[in-house]
Amino acid sequence: MTGQSKHQRGVSMFIVLVMVMLSSLLVIWASRTALFSEMITGNDSDYQRAFEAAQAMVRDAEFDIMGTLADGKTECRSGAAYVGCRELAGGVFFPADEDDFQTLSDSLRAASPSCMRGICLGNDGTFLNSKTGLEAMQKVAATYGTYTGAKATAASNPLLMTGAGQAPRAWYWVEVLPYDVGAATTAGPAQRFAPDAGNPYVFRITAVAKGLKPNSMAVVQTVFVRKRIDS
């Protein structure tokens, strides 16, 4: 009986070791799964924050185009020295007629890239595909509230905040595209949503916001038209 008892104790030890090993593997698997889920949640949260910042940049650009402050109603600036939110000097402002557009074109064609203070001539958007291209465009972009006076706080979206010691993490560019108002000869969306004949321009807004995590970036692009709505 003594030999059989020792044999049984040996088998029990083997079973206990196997159970301990399986338990350890389960604990490791559970911890790695929890860590992976936390990483996914963190990345998604960071992207959503960047996406919301990019959307806010688009709205800020729309106010800039309309020439209003962040409330969307109050005129940015008044006086002969300003056009909307922009200074007349330098020729970089949103055009209201053909002469304005010619002035803008002359100013932007002399620049490389053909963009200044967030206002650009038409481009193909390839700058978003390269780090160097994006860095070059960031230098000629507009940041949140630069022209509309909008203010961001940490409670709203920290990616929009700019100031002393804070590098911008969100930018926008507006391409000014001439529109042939006479091209839409039949009633329909192309005619209904076309810009006014006296201001025949379409504005393509591109907003970019970088998250707090590396390689986290959101891009929002939309088209904006200044159109008088008759009541």
Automatic annotation (TrEMBL):
Residues 141-225 form the PilX/PilW C-terminal domain. Pfam families: PilX, PilX_N. Keywords: Membrane, Transmembrane, Transmembrane helix. InterPro entries: PilX/PilW_C (IPR025205), PilX_N_dom (IPR025746). The chain crosses the membrane at residues 12-31. Residues 9-56 form the Type 4 fimbrial biogenesis protein PilX N-terminal domain. This is Pilus assembly protein.
